[in-house]
């Protein structure tokens, strides 16, 4: 039964596993015990990386108080990754995001696509998807969804928050900010809504 439940969780059919578990429990106990085997619906964390550091590069650079179009490339190293099945990985993963949108020195919203290459020892395929990056002075917030048709953790919600720790450029029109370095303030998390 445990092997079956694990296999079902991997494919996202948690409700089926819960129902099957309740049916087995039904042979051992009355109705109230059956209800106790069920769990409330919500988000289940599938993968999490507690450490994240990297850079985001803007082209053209961002400056002033008026938003203008820019492209951005974010690259980060992921550490402290673990999955919902108890796997803990000591090697690093990688987050790469290509974005475009409008930003000033103080605020902006960019959107695009991402690839998360999980630690090699996890043997998970990379996760791919689309995300939005919100930028407000000193902070970056990334959220989006993995592809529902390819890659690890299909159709799951991805999120992380970051703190800017340094930058290149003064943020003026003559010397725009072309790059920021950052570390995370919340883990990079992949979650699936089980309904």
Task: Record keyword descriptors for this entry.
3 helices; AOC barrel-like; 55% strand; 195 residues
Short summary of the structure?
Helix content is 14%, strand content 55%. With 195 residues, the chain is mostly beta strands. Mean pLDDT is 84; it is low at 1-40.
Could you please describe the fold and organization of this structure?
The model is unreliable at 1-40 (pLDDT under 50). β4 (93-103) and β5 (107-117) form a beta hairpin. It contains three helices and nine strands, in the order αααβββββββββ. The longest helix is centred in the first third of the chain and has 13 residues, at 14-26. α1 packs antiparallel against α2. It has two domains: 2-36, no CATH class; 44-193, AOC barrel-like. With 195 residues, the chain is mainly beta. It has helices at residues 2-10, 14-26, 31-36, and strands at 43-62, 68-83, 88-89, 93-103, 107-117, 127-136, 139-146, 157-168, 177-193. The chain is 14% helix and 55% strand. It is elongated and about 50 Å long. Strands 1-2-4-5-6-7-8-9 form an eight-stranded antiparallel barrel.
């Amino acid at each position: 039964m445990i092997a079956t439940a694990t296999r079902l969780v991997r494919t996202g059919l948690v409700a089926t596993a819960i129902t099957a578990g309740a049916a087995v429990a039904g042979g051992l106990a009355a109705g109230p015990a059956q209800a106790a085997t069920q769990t409330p619906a919500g988000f289940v964390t599938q993968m999490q990386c507690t450490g994240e550091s990297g850079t985001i590069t803007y082209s053209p650079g961002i400056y002033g108080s008026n938003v203008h179009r820019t492209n951005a490339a974010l690259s980060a190293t992921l550490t402290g990754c673990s999955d919902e099945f108890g796997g803990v990985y000591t090697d690093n993963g990688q987050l790469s995001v290509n974005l475009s949108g409008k930003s000033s020195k103080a605020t902006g919203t960019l959107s695009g696509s991402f690839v998360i290459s999980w630690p090699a020892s996890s043997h998970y395929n990379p996760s791919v998807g689309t995300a939005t990056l919100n930028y407000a002075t000193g902070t970056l917030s990334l959220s989006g969804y993995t592809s529902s048709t390819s890659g690890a953790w299909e159709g799951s919600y991805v999120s992380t928050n970051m703190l800017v720790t340094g930058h290149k450029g003064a943020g003026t029109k003559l010397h725009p900010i072309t790059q920021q370095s950052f570390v995370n303030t919340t883990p990079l998390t992949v979650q699936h809504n089980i309904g």
